[in-house]
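User: Can you recover a sequence for this backbone? Please restate the input before giving your answer.

Assistant: Of course. Working from this structure:
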């Protein structure tokens, strides 16, 4: 691995080998998502606790202060929406020149294994890897398993993660599954971060799956809605960070969450 690639990855994955990524890229297909109507305001109280942000070039330019010392992962796939025919029909929407110009530490794009557009998204991943490897920029594949398969079963999550790694992704973001998640991790030769998915009913549910995923080999998380859509986002991200970087168990994380929420920590 060349120096530039190692340097960028070291900014994202911390010295303990773990990572907490904070995505605010949801608007690229959902529009003004609840609690993310003004992304710059949403992240002000919480971005300091993240290891990296994940966002589009438009939000970066218009909502993020260039003086902020925080690495970011640029979302470079899109051109679809929730009112369109199929979210899997994504294209690459950002050039390598733009990625370099905006000083991205990494880029991300979705791959839709098992969907009608499986070949297109996987071919796009390969093209993106080819372009970014030339300049030492890591690619994170965001695995979105198609409607034809069971999204949360280890068998299919492992399939999508392994294919993404085989095509050259340096990091893979995938869903957590309660049963046999270790098979997903063990079958993928690059680091895995856990996606949050829809907002959970309770914070304890988040702490439980983050802790279990870390125990089973994930290096961290890429959580958005289960942080900034919660009633107490600072308490939430601090508790999740404690699980990832300080080895807290779910009960310890919940205790910290309650302390921060009460203004006692």
């Amino acid at each position: 691995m060349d120096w530039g690639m190692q340097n960028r990855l070291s900014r994202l994955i911390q010295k303990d080998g773990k990572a907490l990524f904070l995505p605010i890229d949801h608007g690229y297909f959902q529009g003004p998502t609840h609690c993310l109507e003004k992304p710059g305001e949403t992240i002000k109280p919480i971005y300091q606790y993240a290891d990296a942000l994940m966002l589009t070039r438009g939000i970066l330019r218009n909502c993020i202060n260039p003086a902020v010392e925080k690495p970011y992962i640029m979302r470079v796939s899109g051109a679809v929406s929730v009112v369109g025919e199929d979210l899997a029909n994504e294209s690459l929407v950002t050039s390598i020149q733009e990625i370099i110009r905006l000083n991205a530490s990494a880029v991300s794009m979705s791959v839709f294994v098992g969907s009608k557009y499986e070949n297109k998204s996987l071919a796009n991943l390969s093209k993106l890897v080819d372009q970014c490897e030339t300049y030492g920029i890591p690619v994170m594949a965001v695995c979105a398993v198609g409607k034809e398969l069971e999204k949360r079963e280890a068998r299919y999550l492992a399939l999508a993660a392994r294919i993404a790694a085989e095509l050259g992704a340096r990091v893979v973001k995938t869903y957590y599954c309660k049963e046999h998640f270790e098979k997903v991790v063990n079958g993928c030769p690059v680091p895995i971060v856990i996606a949050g998915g829809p907002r959970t009913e309770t914070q304890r549910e988040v702490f439980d799956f983050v802790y279990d995923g870390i125990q089973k080999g994930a290096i961290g998380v890429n959580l958005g809605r289960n942080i900034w859509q919660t009633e107490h986002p600072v308490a939430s991200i601090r508790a999740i960070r404690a699980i990832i970087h300080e080895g807290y168990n779910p009960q310890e994380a919940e205790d910290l969450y309650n302390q921060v929420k009460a203004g006692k920590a």
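That completes the design. Residues 3-261 form a domain with the TIM Barrel fold (CATH 3.20.20.70).
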